[in-house]
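Our collaborator T.R. sent over the components below with a one-line note: 'Predict the complex.' Nothing else. No constraints on interfaces, no templates requested, no preferences about which chain binds where. So this is a plain run: every listed entity goes in together, and whatever single assembly comes back becomes the starting point for the next discussion.
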Amino acid sequence: MRTIAPGGDHVDLMTINLGPSHPATHGTLRLFAALDGENVIAAVGEMGYLHRGFEKMIEQGTYQQVLPYTDRLNYCSAMMNNIGFCKSVEKMFGITPPERCIRLRVVLLELSRIIDHLVCICTNLVDLGALTNFWYFFNTREEVYTIWEKLCGARLTNTVTRIGGMYRDAYPGFADDVRRVLGRVEHAVAEVRGLIEHNKIFIDRTKDICPISAEQAVAWGWTGPCLRACGVDRDLRKDEPYYGYEEYQFDTVIGTSGDTFDRMMVRMLEILESVSITRQALDKLKPGPVNTTDARLSLPDRQRVYHDMEALINSFKLIYEGVRPPAGECYDAIEAANGELGFLIVSDGGTNPYRIKVRPPCFTQWAAFPGMMEGAMVPDLAAALGSINIIAGELDR
Amino acid sequence: MLDWVIANLPLIVAIALPIAIPLVLFHLLPLLVLMERRGAGVIQDRSGPHRAAVNLQLKSIPGIFNDAVPGLRLRAFGMIYNVTDLVKGLSKEFFIPPFAYPGWYVIAPAIPVMVGVLTPAVIPWFGDMATSVGTIHGTIFPTANGLLLLFALSSLSVYGVVLGAWSSNSKYSLLGGVRSSAMMISYEVSMGLAVLGLLLIYGSFSLQDAVTWQSTHTWGVFVQPIGFLLFLISLFAETCRNPFDVTEGESEIVGGYHTEYNGIRFMLYMTAEYLHIAVGSVLIATLFLGGYQLLPVPGWDTDWLREHLGKVALALSIVTALLLFGFVKLILGRRTHNAAGHATDREVRVREYGIYAAAFSGLAIGTLALGGLAAATLWHNPVPAAGAFWSPVVLTVTALIQFHIIIAKALVFSWLFVWVRWTLPRFRYDQIMDLGWKVLLNVALVNLLITAVVAKLIKEAW
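Returned assembly:
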């Protein structure tokens, strides 16, 4: 392709389609790049190959029926989406779930964050050609999934929460299982850090590759580990604490240069912080109810349904109609593994949501990505794309 | 019959050798593939290849197989995959992409394989044998310029890659082809310079002379440690193995030069890769690790080996048998592990591992018996004069032992290739160029300079 450079010279560029089916795009993304040799001169990103009409679909069902859909947003950490959505709806009702439910949710949130980061880092390392790390992390992730399976029967798409509580309480021995897996996580992180942290090839491949400045990152609306890698101290768990995060002792991991190395290492160290938070939450986990007693959300006790007319009506209304949040608009967000995961819910007072807008963390990162690519090389593309952790499921919705 | 064979042994060896050596490399191929897969499994905390199996339904033999545990399954540690892979490759459609240049597209994968088969011709596999039909060289093509020929041949293999990439007429292939041509040419420079210091010491381009020098002095790795490292790194680049596998770069440019290849043509490229590993390992063993000589002791050359053939054969057979028995111990460990497990095919597994253990124990005992036989017949015998009745046997056994020594050394290096591949991340293309031209080349030049001065001084002093 013959183009005219800014100076007026003619240059021959090769246009190339990286995606929608390309080994480096974990999911269906397309990057259309103009190459001069191996250097990316210009790039255009395109999304929408996985568009499933999520936001339109969930308007057709009740609030409870939205939950299984949220699993499919960021499928690497499905529970975070469950919890994020439930938290938004609970905010509309103005209720807080019971203490035990919140502690359990914190455990699940942090374990989900751990496995999300594990997947992100190990697939990123696969893109860099370091294949072995993939198994070190995936074996550990599988053990977390075994806990998921014991907890709710599903490994990937969990649908583990309910509005106002949990699907069910944790099984006996849950805390011990989690503690054992946390040890395995620390071991795996130590192994992979030993393999890459001081590896000259790894550092050459990631240091100063596709950096983004703090100002740019903020301007693009970045959140989460990618923003923190640029040196911006922004973590919803610290800045707008929810679920009692202010009670836990943990550090926000901050990078300096916003390059691929920082993005990967911020995630790596966040895993260790999450391990610490999970242990603290397990220590604070006390027996008790996991579901709210609010009659607008929670099914009444079965015995009462059989003997009490009001309870029977309540049960019927909840099952046949669903929950009815008060009319209005509500935005609530949690710090998901990849950044701020927000749900804007518009309710008309009915049982179906009038509109739900998801604010996925990787949407803004994908928007900035083609700009970051310009001036980089083709191999950097794979490295940087892995490090910003685009999940097509929540990108396209 | 035996007399006839012994009498005509030199002739048989002379005729069989040019056919056998390339075939031996092809026989190494499945071993290398197995090593790669098993090695990956070991390094990556997973089982490795374990599905492809030969199932024998032998219910009819009473007393051995009962109905509860029918048949026998042999997985041969993943070796069966070599067969299934080949069958798969051959049974695929011979597809040529409509946009490719068909002629070059078909020819290209054959070139690296051809190079891989030709290069062993200049490598000395054993010491020269003076026989009744004349001298049989350990090299198929004995030439004074063996190393030059080797470098010339190995440079040719890049043509296969570039031609395949170009004729595929695909952008990803083109990127891979450009990368590989640039990389191979660059690393040829450092490779040549790395060996040059060694050549100053050996004083010859002949690989046979290199081995002879090493048997009278010491191994090349001790006189040229830096050259050895440089050569090793360049060899990794030449074979396009991780961390230099940017030519394939599966996460960046899909499949690199073989993106558009499938079936048996794709497998030819893979074959070439493993052939190059085998040849490279043999070459590094020849140049730096004494070739077919047993140990880095001055004077332990071919004649010494012939004199002490019985003792050496016994010692080697004991070492081999010990290694085999160690392996049997591992197999029995797996057998116990399986017996304690709850797999549905537990009985089949236990029987399978029992058979492996028996087979390898038998192999070990056979090796010991062979060693003992050699020791008993050749312990006190002086080396028979050329033309004597036993002379061909001594010469041939010596040659066989030397051949196995060099193969063993090469396999150690092949394992290094596997180990590195599953440990290190991949370089970026321009970083490889930086390393080649800015680091390796300079180090090689300095190494060459120092070697030249020191070699000159030492030779003057003598």
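Summary for T.R.: The radius of gyration of chain B is 25 Å.
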